[in-house]
Amino acid sequence: MTVRTDDGRQAAEQSPATGALVARLILVTLLMAELLIQVDQTIVNVALPFIQRDLDFTESGLPWVVNAYGLLYGGLLPLGGRIGDLFGRRRVLIIGVTVFTLASVVCGFSTDPTVMVIARAVQGMGGALTAPVVLSLIITSFEEGPSRQRAFALWGSAQAAGALFGLIVGGLLTSGPGWEFSFFVAVPIGALVVGLAATTIKESRADERPSIDVAGAVTFTAALLMTVFAFLDTQRSWTSPLRGGLLVVAAVLFAVFLAVERRQGHPFVPLQVFRLRNTSGALAIMAIFGATQMSYFFFVTLYLQEILGFSALQTGLAYLPLIATLLVFAQVCMKTVARVGLTRMLMTGLLCLGLGMGWLGLAASSGSFVGTVLGPTIISGIGLGLTMMPAGTLATTGVDPADAGAVSGLFNTAILVGGSLGLAVLTTVTQAVGGLGGTHGYTVAFLCSAGLAAAAILIAALVIRVPKQTDAAA
């Protein structure tokens, strides 16, 4: 394992036993931080009716308990990654987790809707600082090859499983001590992550420390925030002047951003990474993957509750087969990718995810858990377990360590923004065919998601190119 110290020099070599122990502690710390961020994206969903009752939220205001977090988290991810590159990834990790944890405490003690929404926005800011530096610390702490791929496999499992654990833990806590503990649970985990990060992770940053590209950061972040806001604002139709105006302004800002970046010596988002064929392909695949994954969780959760009549706790428990399958096949992926190859493993994962969504669509009218959900859940879990590691490896192989934070921010942003965009589009499609009052709307949503997975497979086949020696070393 190689890391860089504050001044950019390589740290001294350690004995094999000590180095292995330190590597495990670093990985545990990073996985806990990732799990903390991902769990929070869904843990609050189960508690929303109780939060509405206790804090007197209006129906139009309640979605902002979720949207305030998603808006700041999605819009600031690339900025968080770049800040980590410039000012120290360990430092930014500690700051991000601390901000996230303190905001969680405020959420738990909230007695007013405004305080809750503001605290959720601050949580999103903490998450945006944390998530990209977790991935960039994996890139900089583990050398290319089996050790980094193992870390990516476990990171992918933590990212995908975190959202599912959030549903289960949220159901248990809301049904037990109360919705406040859905936020308080972050306190011991956040404190442990901060303590471990401060004692096990060596500081790393880009070898050169240029000033932040303010113009690029402002235009890109503003454009991304407007885009995410436009897709999250489901209270308005797609033809509303506000939604359309935001998207037009976002497009103009993106154009200005590209013009600014071409003239920057040290750009906010290094455009040269998009010249790497595999990085660009993997980012596009992750955007589609995010749309498929988020649509799966959203529509399956509604199907279980609205069609099958499951309670919040039963809904969370219904995802246990998916969690178990995901964790098992993440390990299978790690152990067999050297024989299968990165591209074939990625395509196999996407194929399983597509098959699971297609099966859900075809079986939606049966109206039973075993007949409709259980089989597709297992197939989709296989797909989730096989996809994240090869995608993360392909996106970051050959990337300059100085750009690790920027690429990791883009990777996470692709998943989140792709998920928001895809879910918004699929929700619009289901409303056009009659909504989700019956099984027909779910059939359309699941089959469209299967089509998205097929598009991702096509990109993998046409764009991704991995030399044989790279696959052999995987």
TrEMBL record:
Q: Name one Pfam family in it.
A: MFS_1
Major facilitator superfamily (MFS) profile domain spans which residues?
Answer: 26-468
Where does it mainly reside? membrane
Per the record's keyword annotation, is Membrane included, yes or no?
Answer: yes
Keywords on this record? Antibiotic resistance, Cell membrane, Membrane, Transmembrane, Transmembrane helix, Transport
Topology relative to the lipid bilayer, per the entry, is: Multi-pass membrane protein
Keyword check for Iron = no
Localization per record: Cell membrane
The membrane spanning regions, by residue number, are: 21-41, 61-80, 92-111, 117-140, 152-175, 181-200, 212-232, 244-260, 281-304, 316-334, 346-365, 377-397, 409-429, 441-464
Q: InterPro entries, from UniProt?
A: MFS, MFS_dom, MFS_trans_sf
Q: Which Gene3D superfamilies match?
A: MFS general substrate transporter like domains, Multidrug resistance protein D
An example GO BP is:
response to antibiotic
Which CDD domains does the record match to this protein?
A: MFS_MMR_MDR_like
Named from the GO MF annotations, one term is: transmembrane transporter activity
GO CC, sorted alphabetically, is: plasma membrane
Its recorded name reads Antibiotic efflux protein
Q: Could you tell me which species this protein originates from?
A: Streptomyces atroolivaceus
